[in-house]
Amino acid sequence: FLVAWGRAARGLDISAPSPPPHNHLDLFRPRDPPVVDFEHRGVEYYRPTTSNPKQGEGGHHGADNVIIHKAHFTKDFIAGLRAKASEGRGRPFSRFETTLAHLWRTMTRARGLSPGEDSTIRISVDGRRRLSAPPGYFGNLVLWAFPRSTVGDLLSRPLKHAAQTIHDAVARLDGAYFQSLVDFASSGAVEREGLEKTAVLKDVLCPDLEVDSWLTFPFYELDFGAGSPSYFMPSYFPTEGMLFLVPSYLGDGSVDAFVPVFQHNLDAFKQCCYSMD
Is pLDDT of 63 > 80? Predict the structure, then answer.
């Protein structure tokens, strides 16, 4: 979409047979009757309680003590991580799975968490291919995967454990899961039970993480008439545990990770960030 926008701004053909569909309500219809094959309570929806308030009743915690640290992972370093994590596995883990697994373990170690604590990542999962969206569709088809592990397992088991946990959680969100959510959201259960969307919960904080991966976005192919950008980075977002993965401006497959970390954990993060142990 962004590349096509740039081409249109320069008066060029956007190579699309028709205007891209973005608001066609008939594309993703619920089944009649609805068929809910998966549990969505506690995942995409939750029931507010006095101890679990709605969004807006919480807030930022310690934003003044958060440092946005940029970690640069070279192509060779990522290749080493992938080889280490994928040893004995027929198909290697992806660059995203491996980099995130490494950061999950690094953040967990830097935070000094107890072995018995649970740590969860919230990962955005694109549903376009999973629901066979038409070419050019750019509507919102995003759900979240929630890989979870104990701190003890993350740090005592090899990198493969974290990568496999991430892989399995994302793979679970297939087309059937997306369609099940469409049916559940249209079944009336949300209204009857007074459920709220977890998508608007308060910011993710320690011991958990959230990640936005922009690794496949063609930022450096954008051109609105003044040439391609020389650098791309997210805006200031001082929420501890909110990670952004972006392709390096070098264009060689290396990755820049923007990591908001509490100031008192920064030195520990730096010390283990480039270790493969």
Answer: no
